[in-house]
Design goal:
elongated
Length: 116
């Protein structure tokens, strides 16, 4: 393949006197899949509003211990937690693991709230 047909640039460097070598520097790749930030902004706004409501509810409660305490779930499932954090490409599995923790923790929170 000819040098001119490739995407990127060549940098010519001198080793000693008349000896040269060319270094190929490719252009940066776009993210896979390409991200459209306009699609993310409404989701960020919704998440921010949901966290604000949760924070507002916790300010009204006299004891916030019955609320979700996901750290305990992550400590109990530490190996799976770190495995999911390391597999960056498999974000669906991370979300599934996280939601399982929310369901389990919410069940424990309901039992605690009933006992209080």
């Amino acid at each position: 393949m000819e040098k001119k047909k490739r995407i990127g640039a060549y940098l010519r460097s001198s080793v000693v006197e008349e000896e040269y070598y060319d270094s190929y520097i490719p252009k940066p790749l776009p993210p896979e899949p390409p991200l459209d930030m306009r699609e993310l902004y409404p989701l960020l706004d919704q998440a921010n509003a949901a966290l604000g409501r949760l924070d507002g509810m916790s300010a009204v409660l006299p004891d916030t211990s019955p609320l979700l305490y996901l750290s305990l779930y992550f400590k109990a499932n530490r190996r799976a937690y770190y495995d999911h954090l390391q597999s960056v490409r498999d974000w669906e599995a991370w979300i599934e693991f996280f939601l399982e923790g929310v369901v389990e923790t919410a069940g424990q929170a309901m039992e605690t709230a009933k006992a209080v």
